[in-house]
Amino acid sequence: MAAANEDVKLIFAPADGCNHSRAKQFAISTLSRDDLLPSPIEQFHDWFTAASTCKVNVPETATLSTAHMPSGRVSARMVYLKELDKRGFVIYSNWATSKKAEDVASNPRVSLTFWWPEVERQVRVEGLAERLSPEASQEYFDTRARDSRIGAWASRQSSVLQDREELDAQVAEANKRFEGQDRIPVPEFWGGLRVIPLMVEFWQGRQSRLHDRFQYTREDVVDLEWKIERLSP
């Protein structure tokens, strides 16, 4: 009887009520080799600008995936892209106690995935992670709301809390520490992480799941030449 219950599908081929079990079709746009810029950084900037113009909901949202070595345990979480430069994609976080910090310390290979449903586009980035300097991190840290800066000091990200009151006490302690200070220094354990791409894939949804996919690859982070290939959907 238990085995029979295990076979019951709690979710099966979800779709909207109009299409019943048929998955949504993608038909907004197409992507060809002639559409692509030589650099994936430039191409991402072009697509990001278009996503912002088309009012994609929070287009800077991405999934950051990491893998801990030697176990190979994979973790993923949502983050915000805060900067894009010629070297890569920059996010900010706690790099002392978080799981992502533990993973990156053991394995610098990470990935980012952006999904923009309003324009039926996806971008995947695979590359190497490097920490930004304290000076570069301070520049962004200064743009954050004061409470967010205090929160960065207060939170031991991903560590176990006994209750909410324990967190509130940590916040109160940080507030007291920086009382009367307009400029709060960036914590030594907090800052920017740049993902330097080795592979970037641009995905444009198409009818019948026959999507347009183009992949940029290079052998090394110092290589300025990118190889562009169309991938099978």
UniProtKB/TrEMBL annotation:
Residues 190-233 form the Pyridoxine 5'-phosphate oxidase dimerisation C-terminal domain. Pathway: Cofactor metabolism; pyridoxal 5'-phosphate salvage; pyridoxal 5'-phosphate from pyridoxamine 5'-phosphate: step 1/1; Cofactor metabolism; pyridoxal 5'-phosphate salvage; pyridoxal 5'-phosphate from pyridoxine 5'-phosphate: step 1/1. Its EC number is 1.4.3.5. SUPFAM superfamilies: FMN-binding split barrel. It is an enzyme of class 1 (oxidoreductase). The keyword Heme does not apply. Its cofactor is FMN. Keywords: Flavoprotein, FMN, Oxidoreductase. It comes from the Eukaryota. HAMAP family: PdxH (MF_01629). Gene3D superfamilies: Electron Transport, Fmn-binding Protein, Chain A (2.30.110.10). GO terms for molecular function: FMN binding; pyridoxamine phosphate oxidase activity. One of its GO terms (biological process) is pyridoxine biosynthetic process. InterPro entries: Pyridox_Oxase (IPR000659), Pyridox_Oxase_CS (IPR019740), Pyridox_Oxase_N (IPR011576), Pyridoxamine_oxidase_dimer_C (IPR019576), Split_barrel_FMN-bd (IPR012349). NCBIfam families: pdxH (TIGR00558), PRK05679.1 (NF004231). The keyword Flavoprotein applies. It holds the Pfam family PNP_phzG_C. This is pyridoxal 5'-phosphate synthase. PANTHER family: PYRIDOXINE-5'-PHOSPHATE OXIDASE (PTHR10851:SF0), PYRIDOXINE-5-PHOSPHATE OXIDASE (PTHR10851). Residues 57-175 form the Pyridoxamine 5'-phosphate oxidase N-terminal domain.
